[in-house]
Amino acid sequence: MKILDKYILKSFFKPFAATFLIVLFVLVMQTLWQTFENIAGKGISLIFILKFLYYTTLMIIPQALPIGVLLSSIMALGNLGENYEFAAAKSAGVSLQRLVRPIAILAIFLSGINFLFLNNVYPYAILNQSNLYLNIKKKKPALALVAGSFNSDLPGYQIKFDEKYGEDENLLKKVLIYDLTGGRGNQKVITAETGKIISEEGSRYMTFILNDGNYYEEHVKNARTPSKRAKMSASSATFKEYEFNIDISSIVGGDLDSNSVKNHFRMLTVEQLKDTIPVLKARYDETLKDRSNNVYTSTYANRLYKYPDSIKTKNVDSTLLSNFALKEKISILNASISKTSRVLSNLSNYNPAIKWERKTLNFFDTEYYNRVAFSLSCFILFFIGAPLGSIIRKGGFGLPMILAIAIYVIYFFANTFGRNLAEESTISAFLGSWISFFLMVPLAILLTRRATKDKGLFNLDSFLQPITKLFKKIIPKKSK
């Protein structure tokens, strides 16, 4: 390896190590800050926290690596330009392409490492972190209850409350509970102003103590007719304190390291995604076929057939209803409306399930393409950062940090926006995953050309000169 290549790599590695570690630390802390508010101070062991931190770090590395490459490439080339080393190299006949060649090879190598992380380490980290968080909820079921929405994690109950507070996060405000243990719907409803959850680790019961509330229950019996069932009695009562137990033996227990969820699309490698997608596609196509066959048979379209021309009646009106009497027309129209309403109702009922099945397929499809597309982010962001650094000729963490953050935010936003569109079937999974890459390629080419020709980032004369010429043509010169 030549001395110049060693020097260029050394000037790149120093800021890369610093920026990568800083970005990794910031992103990990951001993730932990969002998660630990639900688990910190609730008797969670240090081992669990360290495991959670370890898996979070593994998940963040593929995201921090491109930012480190982008920022360090701007800083490395910016330092060379600021110290006039870039100008000295050019005067010695060394081009920009030759100067950045060792870093470009390194960027390709880092893209390969990023792909290995995304394909092997990232699914492993997602699998273990998700199951670790799920298992800790089983150890402490109160953690699974979330304020502001109905919670169905506890078997036989739907529980909603406005706020969870207190030192142990076991005090509740504005509690609403639907008791579904009878298997007859929400015929038992309990409301309370405040409540308290008591649960011990390993216990098969969770105790609710409710205060200042109401209790309502419909006493449904096996009446044969709807009129008799409507006359069944109901009971209601108010209470100062009401205590009851919920059997949670079916959801508690298990080892913290056990993995009960394994088929999430982020937990699979590229090979596993490739094998899963055809199965989901065949299942989705089968669902559409079943629905279309259901519509076909429910509208009696299978009974329609074409008469041969030889037996057609000559005096039949082409407008079909005109061939029937008024009563028959009304009967036909009523039957048509009834059948159409049933079909539309059937489609409306199945539509959410079909949409979700399609969205699930899109999740796997988009993740498959995104694994490759996002791994190349190191490569494409280097070809933006290197020429940008040689243009601005500024090192340090000031301007390069601002430019790197701005560029990566655009890249990450385009990637997220494209994936969301693909998941909603607005665009294809391939385009949704690669749209950020396609947006950055023209910018990389533009910056590389301007850096090669030693031009600035923005040439104001190129914009102002046509405008100046236009005004000169419109406004005549004053005679002296």
Task: Describe the model.
The chain has 480 residues and is of the alpha+beta class. α2 packs antiparallel against α4 and α9 runs antiparallel to α10. The longest helix is centred in the C-terminal third of the chain and has 50 residues, at 326-375. A hairpin with a 6-residue loop joins β3 and β4 (205-218). Helices cover 60% and strands 12% of the residues. The chain has helices at residues 3-39, 46-82, 85-91, 96-139, 226-230, 270-298, 326-375, 377-392, 399-423, 429-452, 460-474; strands at residues 157-165, 171-179, 188-198, 205-218, 234-247. A 5-stranded antiparallel sheet has the order 1-2-3-4-5, with no helix packed on it.
Summarize the structure.
This protein has 480 residues and is α+β, with helices and mostly antiparallel strands.
Question: Topology of this structure?
Answer:
Blueprint: H1 3-39, H2 46-82, H3 85-91, H4 96-139, E1 157-165, E2 171-179, E3 188-198, E4 205-218, H5 226-230, E5 234-247, H6 270-298, H7 326-375, H8 377-392, H9 399-423, H10 429-452, H11 460-474
Antiparallel strand pairs: 1-2, 2-3, 3-4, 4-5
- Unreliable runs: none
The largest sheet, given as strand count, sense and whether it forms a barrel, is: 5 strands, antiparallel
Give the strand content: 5-15%
Helix-strand category: alpha+beta
C-alpha Rg (nearest Å): 33 Å
Summarize this structure as a short list of keywords or feature phrases.
480 residues
